[in-house]
Amino acid sequence: MSNFMLQTYQAVDLQRLQSQRAGETRLGQALQFVNPDVALPAALAEARARGAKFAILGVPEDVGPRANFGNGGADLGFQAFLGRFLNVQANQFVRASEILLLGEVNLHDVQQKASSLSSSQSDQLEALRASVSTVDERVTSVVKQIFDAGLTPIVIGGGHNNSYPLLKALSLSAGKAADAINLDPHCDFRLKEGRHSGNGFSYAQAEGFLDTYFVMGLHELKNAQSALDQMAAANASFCSYQEVFIRRETTFASGIDKAIEHVGGPSLDKPLGIEVDTDSISGMPVSAMTNCGISVADAEYYVHRLAQLPRARYLHLAEAAPGQHPAGLKAGMSEAGQILTALVLAFVQNH
């Protein structure tokens, strides 16, 4: 089943990415796929009836980061993930039948149209930001159907601009504003100057889709004062990278406690989005790569802790850009895929 908004996957589409070994079953052989012969709402309902709990969705775009004066390459994050995830062992520690590998949002035309645009030209920058709005519409449409089916989306790839359509879809489906906790050196609460990867949360808050917001690991020197002021006005809060890792005023675990408390606690009857900008992780190939970030283990712990909250409704892993790896695309695909897979497994094992 393919439509204008969504390209679904079937097992046969992914065989080229899978390794086989006698006596072993890999996740790619044990996951669920949607029925290609029925409309999406019915296909999602069928998957849920068969025991699916999670729906994995790719967003192959990099117009959001480029519209924010960043580097491209986030369109390959989901493919990097698949190459590693499908080959993980399906064993007693992960319930593969609970995972539906849905497919990817169809953004080929948007990517193609935006490929020749440059953010250094004002008219082209405007066109890039208009393209991000098109991405918003398609992601919102697909993800809302996942929420409406009672499944938990795991959204991988693309820029952090996709926090906005995720929060919009969650809010519309739940009938109330959502909260969000974001692991990110940047608050992504920049001015509403046209859509891009740096203002997903400020747009979501301004339009009533985001209520309470917290940033874990915010870097004190990587955020514009205007964005920090907008956060303060919106009653958002943060625990900074400097507090935890430089000044050692608190621990990473205590910072997560503070985040949960700020958004109202673990069992509040309000949906919560779990956000991870993978540029928070040292050495991760991303649009804005850093060697001054957190470890993969800390990022896994963050996901593990928040996945346990009954109100957690989605996991979003943004900004992986394999081509930005200093050793080239092949190394980037391997490393980004490994880290994205680790974060997804930290979520599904604990939610």
From TrEMBL:
GO molecular function, one term: metal ion binding
Signal peptide as annotated in the record: none
Keywords: Hydrolase, Manganese, Metal-binding
BP term (GO), one: putrescine biosynthetic process from arginine, via agmatine
InterPro entries, alphabetized: Ureohydrolase, Ureohydrolase_dom_sf
PANTHER family: ARGINASE/AGMATINASE, FORMIMIDOYLGLUTAMASE
Family listed: Belongs to the arginase family.
Name of the protein this chain belongs to: Arginase
